[in-house]
Amino acid sequence: MNALIPFLSWWRTIRTRDREIVEALVDPAHHGPSAELRSALRAWGGLHYWSRIDGIDRLVLITPLVAPQRERWWLHGVLFLATFLTVWMSGALLTGSSLPLAFPFHLDYARAPEILGEMWSELTRMPAGLGFAMALMAILLAHESGHYIWARRYGLNASPPYFLPAPPVVNFIGTFGAFIRLRSQVVDRRQLMDVGAAGPWAGFVVAVIALIAGLLRSQLVAEIGPSSQFVMLAELQVYLGDSPIFAALRERLVGEGTVLLHPLAFAGWLGLFVTTLNLLPLGQLDGGHVLYALLGRRQGVVSTVALVGLLVLGYVVGREVSPWIAWFWWLWAGLILMVGRGRVVHPSVLEPHRPLPAGRKLLGVATMVLFIATFSPVPIYPIW
After folding, report:
1. How many CA atoms does the CB half-sphere of 298 hold within 13 Å?
2. Distances in Å between the alpha carbon of 362 and those of 39, 117, 235, 294, 354?
3. Domain extents for the chain?
4. Gyration radius of the chain over CA positions
5. Which of 29, 192, 228, 295 has most Cβ atoms within 10 angstroms of its Cβ?
6. Cα angle value 361/363/367 (rounded, 5°)
7. Phi, psi of 351 (to 5 degrees)
């Protein structure tokens, strides 16, 4: 930091338990920045970015105060592989496999090696199931990597992604998703916007690629059901809801009618659904991050209205479609409240009054539009 002082005309310092953050005005002689300042920043080696506030460019410098935390990469790798396996099993069921769904809950353990061998043989005979697993895991990995990369870009202490496996008998898609832990407090609303929006956008891009590839392999059928698309889960027909972007791509690439989705298309549909769930403008979901970055303290009012809207949505679709759908939205609302300890108001950042740059405001609005484009009020129709 001392080597940069000659280039600065004013600065102030904020210290947290793991970082020192300096917000500075650069001397007019080195605006641009000058070649000398660029060279000094490279030699300094810390993290920095420029933030335009009230028409003035300010330099933000971030210096770690503690050694990087040693991550248990082995644990993240094991969870990733376990989740890949359970998602692969779900993909095999989508392609007509007869895998023993009850494994390992109802198992003759004397025959465990034999059953595991049969399962592996069954999995390897289902290439479409492997494609489903690769696509869905790529979507989840892209989403969490978006958060992780931008958090590290700002010097935030973030964990690698934790993947959550789920046997198909518990969850028919094979996973409860993934998450990262953010151990540092976010400095300002720009950082919150970038970290919060990066995940949904990265996952969305991969989901659209999988969706297009899958829809081109899907087929129109004579089946008439409660929705325009369905997947086969073993011998069950599972009808899926529409979002604006999914409906547009389906009609463009497949045509009008009822569509039996290829497993790749189902992975893309799940990617859109994960995006919309994360972008609900509530609490500390990605949508809550983006909304707080856009509105500051006013986020609490909008999030309260959104929570009431989610409860009303559950009541309406529960009455019109099935109580099962109502419970889905109500349980999701309850989970959000539990994580937020009964609150939907986003915690403050260190510098809440530092304004959001104009470019980030556009990003926030675009992200809210993405939420609308991927939202499906009835995501899945009952299968019983």
Report:
1. 5
2. 32, 53, 46, 9, 17
3. 2-64, 73-217+264-374
4. 24
5. 192
6. 120
7. -120, 70
